[in-house]
Amino acid sequence: VFDTRPKAANADTITDFTVGEDHLAFNNAVFTRIGRDGVLADKAFTANDTGLAADKSDRIVYNSTTGEVFYDADGSKSGASKLVAILDPGLALTASDIFVL
Q1: What is the pLDDT of residues 49-89, one digit of tens each?
Q2: Can you give 11-24 as a three-state secondary structure string?
Q3: Domain definitions of the chain by residue range
């Protein structure tokens, strides 16, 4: 469970993450723009090879080239995203692999 404000020094490295079996969980008391409890909304997730939010509704961004997972409170607007985790690159990660608590 990600329940601490993301900082440069506290990104978690998660090895052996299995899509469809394992899940990332974000506390919406800390990640205040991520949405309501439950499975992350599809519109709040993007996976790409840049690690950048594709639109203003993206909150979790998975860089499929590096495996980095970012939280972006304002999507593609001017605010910076925060690195929260590093998974294996090349996963077929989707919003259904992410829970909001």
Answers
A1: 999 999 999 999 999 999 999 999 999 998 889 999 999 99
A2: CEECCCCCCCCCCE
A3: 12-100
